[in-house]
Amino acid sequence: MNTRLAVATHILTFLQTQGGRAATSELIASSVNTNPSFIRRLLAQLAKAGLTTSQLGAGGGALLARSAEKISLLDVYDAVNDEGALLPVHEDSSSLCEVGRSIGGVLKNRLTAAEVALREELARTTIKDMATGVAEANRIGR
């Protein structure tokens, strides 16, 4: 597990709050509290997936490539997940053991069901929902 999904969601939500103004990796990094080079790597993955675009020149930076209501958290997850299965199964158990020869298949069925549920939940939430939630949290927090 890593934080790429959370940071990528942060990036896209931040871009949504910019009102169409391009944001530099340095500006985004200051919001995430991380290194701009990490932000640039994630922006490259998000751009490859068609979620962000870049504006060159003075005032340039990252922008959403499509409307926030058309970007789901599942889109974000798929863009930054390069590790394959979310919950991989150890494949080298001993076939000589009753547990070892069967645990992989049994566990894989359960983990696959969990991943399907996660994907369904991520598909229900958009970047617009996230930006609305952030605005509401800030309104209540004041």
Please tell me about this protein's structure.
The chain has 142 residues and is mainly alpha-helical. The chain has one domain (4-141): Winged helix-like DNA-binding domain superfamily/Winged helix DNA-binding domain (Arc Repressor Mutant, subunit A), CATH 1.10.10.10. 60% of the residues lie in helices and 6% in strands. It has a two-stranded antiparallel ribbon with strand order 1-2. Strand 1 (52-55) and strand 2 form a beta hairpin. Helix 1 (4-17) crosses helix 4, helix 1 (4-17) packs across helix 6 (127-141) and helix 4 packs across helix 5. The protein starts with a helix and ends with a helix.
CA(first)-CA(last) distance? 33 Å
CATH architecture classification name: Orthogonal Bundle
Strand and helix order: HHHEEHHH
Percentage beta strand: 5-15%
Can you give keywords for this protein?
single chain, 142 residues, mainly alpha, Arc Repressor Mutant, subunit A, two-stranded antiparallel sheet, 2 strands, 60% helix, 6% strand, elongated
Brief overview, please?
60% of the residues lie in helices and 6% in strands.
Produce the secondary structure layout.
Blueprint: H1 4-17, H2 25-32, H3 36-48, E1 52-55, E2 61-64, H4 73-80, H5 98-124, H6 127-141
Antiparallel strand pairs: 1-2
